């Protein structure tokens, strides 16, 4: 959930509203915020599934160190979404191992 | 290859202060930070800092960060962001990954101020989405404006765990509990008390054994631990939470120093493997300095002073200031640093569990260490809580020796005294007359000061308290007064709400309660 009004910080300076997609679904966020923050605000917890055990992973450090939050952004895998700014029209996909769900499923059928 | 006389790695308080000091003396300085935002930890800290005026006490961390950054920029310091330093090579050369491109920089002096990394604990399900570091929680709520979760379990009761718990409450989240495997609350008592009085339970000698849930955290199982930190079967409790926040300590990020060839030492009191530095924060390698958390986990206030000492020494070694000037400035910074390194939480006392009384000889509160709040009986031993004066008067529930004195500066009427040793407990001067102005409440970094007036009206007293939550109650509102443990004890009516610029976002609520609760009512809930 977004914090509308904070007792110390007041209102947060947000950029323009932007539209992006997550696994093909339309989503909205604000320019300048991290992809991870926009997803978290929308209640999305899983960013990727691990390669071998297929376990879900989400935000952990939020400072670009742990790589738990990596996703496929505009076709590029392994993008650390916690330190990557959201931009209008981004195509974001949950990452399975190091690839898309489709590619992963094709291999692991 | 680009050249700057001083290359500073890390734009936190230590790095920025080193840069400012060197630039002030005329040096050409560049600062590198892997983040897109400079300021290190400071920009996530929205609470008022401890220390004395010269240490920026009672200023909020992010404002200190803004000031440092402005000063550095005004002095012409070049700040490279999104610039990760990957290695330090022979002859003061560094390799930087800047916006995805690798660049070489060469300097005469290198200051390593890379700060610390968060420690982790593992337990069943610890890798599920919803288990996050305390730093991540802060980044989400304080930088991005997004709640980390709705109901949170905080693991760790050091200052980080306590401060972040309070910040979570301010962000509108619920904190289900603060737990710690240690038998005692690790952070400042005043930080614990401001969390406890809102009703958050503290479970010491407890650990988290499992994160429940399928694809994300849907609950947490905690259990009591024995003296070897092993969970005791049968003591498990399930908490309804969606987020588990880990705050179990920090470790110096000293790899760069190690790789550069600096002599290293494992020092538990400093938080791990640290470069050995001399009294000027210089490592075993000539011209390579280390300051701030990377040289030993401490505070932003001490990180800034270490940075200044390093910056001044580099200026002297490179001929920008003469020996007298150097010695004078270092003396000044060192004296200021010594002030901070006093009291029961000083670095030299880290890990000590044998302290039973304050420097003044008053028994330390056991309840504070076990549950996060001081009992009425224990408080009665502290003069600043039990001074009898008629009319409105301050009650100062600050019961541990911590380096802090804004309360003394705040009272222009001489009611509060700490003295020159800033770790002494504040005392109240019964001769001085309190006007009820409230400046002491707003200045107290620990939110430990209340104004009590037992003579408000027949049968009723007023209690004024610091309040940093939304929605802000209004005069005339009726609700409950909570005691120090967060338990509702009586009805309360808000008689006034004071907010002003000088109070810097700390509001003062004055509530009317039956006079017999004047000594126990310490929080308000609508
Ligand atoms: C919750 C919490 C509450 C706190 N409260 C207080 C308080 O009340 N008072 C107080 O004085 N202190 C407080 N502190 C402590 C204080 O924030 C730290 O001690 C202080 O920030 C340390 O400063 P630093 O400059 O050493 O490191 P940091 O602030 O951590 O800065 C280090 C910087 O180095 C950068 N960096 C690291 N590696 C590289 C690399 N290879 N290349 C480029 N850049 C790199 C990082 O991105 C970071 O920006 C608190 C800390 C926390 C977490
Ligand atoms: S309320 Fe004002 S006068 Fe009274 S102790 Fe506090 S600062 Fe001093
Ligand atoms: S009472 Fe004084 S010394 Fe204690 S926390 Fe508050 S400002 Fe600091
Ligand atoms: S959450 Fe750790 S890298 Fe993004």
Architecture overview:
The complex is a heterodimer of chains A (about 110) and B (about 525). With about 110 residues, chain A is of the alpha/beta class. Chain A has one domain: Ubiquitin-like (UB roll), CATH 3.10.20. In chain A, about 15% of the residues lie in helices and about 30% in strands. In chain A, the strands form two sheets. In chain A, strands 2-1-7-5-6 form a five-stranded mixed β-sheet, with helices on one face. The longest helix of chain A has 7 residues, at about 35-40. The radius of gyration of chain A is 14 Å and the shape is globular. The longest helix of chain B is centred in the middle third of the chain and has 18 residues, at about 300-315. Chain B folds into three domains: about 1-115 and about 250-340, FAD/NAD(P)-binding domain, CATH 3.50.50; about 130-245, FAD/NAD(P)-binding domain, CATH 3.50.50; about 375-525, no CATH class. Chain B is about 25% helix and about 25% strand. The model of chain B has no long low-confidence stretch (mean pLDDT about 95). In chain B, a hairpin with a 6-residue loop joins strand 14 (about 205-210) and strand 15 (about 220-225). Chain B has about 525 residues and is an alpha/beta fold. Chain B has a seven-stranded antiparallel β-sheet. FE2/S2 (inorganic) cluster binds near residues 61 and 69 of chain A. Flavin-adenine dinucleotide binds next to helix 1, strand 5, helix 4 and helix 7 of chain B.
């Amino acid at each position: 959930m977004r914090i509308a009004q904070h007792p110390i910080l007041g209102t947060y300076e947000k950029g323009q509203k932007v539209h992006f997609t997550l696994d093909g679904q339309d989503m909205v966020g604000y320019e300048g915020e991290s992809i991870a923050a926009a997803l978290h605000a929308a209640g999305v917890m899983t960013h990727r599934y691990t390669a071998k055990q297929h376990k879900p992973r989400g935000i952990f450090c939020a400072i670009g160190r742990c790589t738990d939050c990596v996703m496929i952004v505009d076709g590029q895998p392994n993008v650390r979404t916690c330190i990557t700014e959201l931009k209008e029209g981004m195509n974001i996909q949950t990452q399975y191992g190091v690839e898309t769900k489709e590619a992963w499923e094709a291999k692991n059928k | 290859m680009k050249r700057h006389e001083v290359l500073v790695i890390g734009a936190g308080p230590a790095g920025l202060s080193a840069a400012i000091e060197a630039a002030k003396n005329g040096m050409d300085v560049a600062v590198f930070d892997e983040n897109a935002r400079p300021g290190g930890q400071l920009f996530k800290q929205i609470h008022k800092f401890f220390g004395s005026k010269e240490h920026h006490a009672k200023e909020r961390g992010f404002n200190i960060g803004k000031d440092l950054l402005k000063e550095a920029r005004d002095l012409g310091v070049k700040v490279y962001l999104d610039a990760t330093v990957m290695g330090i090579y022979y002859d003061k050369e560094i390799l930087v990954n800047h916006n995805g491109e690798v660049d070489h920089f060469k300097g005469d002096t290198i200051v390593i101020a890379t700060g610390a990394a968060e420690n982790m604990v593992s337990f069943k399900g610890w890798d599920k989405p919803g288990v996050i570091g305390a730093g991540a929680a802060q980044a989400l709520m304080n930088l991005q404006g997004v709640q980390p979760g709705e109901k949170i379990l905080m693991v760790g009761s050091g200052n980080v765990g306590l401060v972040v718990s309070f910040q979570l409450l301010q962000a509108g989240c619920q904190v289900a509990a603060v737990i710690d495997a240690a038998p005692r609350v690790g952070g400042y008592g005043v930080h614990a008390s401001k969390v406890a009085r809102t009703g958050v339970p503290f479970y010491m000698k407890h650990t988290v054994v499992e994160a429940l849930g399928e694809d994300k955290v849907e609950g947490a199982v905690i259990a009591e631990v024995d003296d070897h930190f092993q969970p005791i079967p049968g003591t498990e409790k399930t908490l309804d939470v969606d987020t588990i926040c880990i705050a179990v300590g920090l470790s110096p990020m000293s790899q760069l120093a190690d790789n550069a060839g600096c002599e290293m030492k494992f020092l538990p009191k400093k938080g791990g493997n640290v470069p050995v530095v001399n009294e000027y924060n210089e490592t075993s390698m000539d011209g390579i300095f280390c300051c701030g958390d990377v040289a030993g986990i401490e505070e932003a206030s001490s990180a800034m002073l270490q940075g200044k000492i390093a910056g001044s020494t580099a200026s002297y070694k490179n001929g920008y200031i003469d020996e007298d000037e150097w010695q004078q400035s270092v003396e000044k910074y060192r004296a200021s640093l010594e002030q901070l390194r006093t009291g029961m939480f000083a670095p030299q006392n880290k890990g000590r569990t044998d302290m039973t009384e304050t420097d003044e000889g008053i028994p330390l509160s056991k309840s504070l260490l076990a549950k996060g709040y001081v009992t009425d009986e224990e408080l009665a031993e502290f003069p600043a809580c039990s001074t009898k004066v008629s009319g409105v008067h301050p009650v100062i529930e600050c019961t541990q020796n911590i380096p802090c004195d804004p309360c003394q500066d705040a009272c222009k009427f001489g009611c509060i005294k700490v003295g020159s040793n800033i770790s002494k407990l504040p005392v109240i001067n019964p001769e001085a007359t309190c006007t009820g102005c409230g400046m002491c409440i707003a200045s107290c970094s620990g939110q430990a000061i209340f104004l009590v007036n037992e003579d408000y009206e027949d049968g009723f007293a007023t209690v004024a308290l610091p309040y940093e939550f939304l929605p802000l109650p209004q005069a005339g509102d009726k609700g409950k007064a909570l005691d120090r443990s967060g338990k509702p004890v009586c009805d309360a009516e808000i008689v006034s709400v004071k907010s002003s610029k000088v109070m810097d976002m700390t509001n003062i609520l004055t509530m009317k309660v039956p006079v017999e609760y004047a000594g126990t009512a310490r929080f308000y809930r609508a």
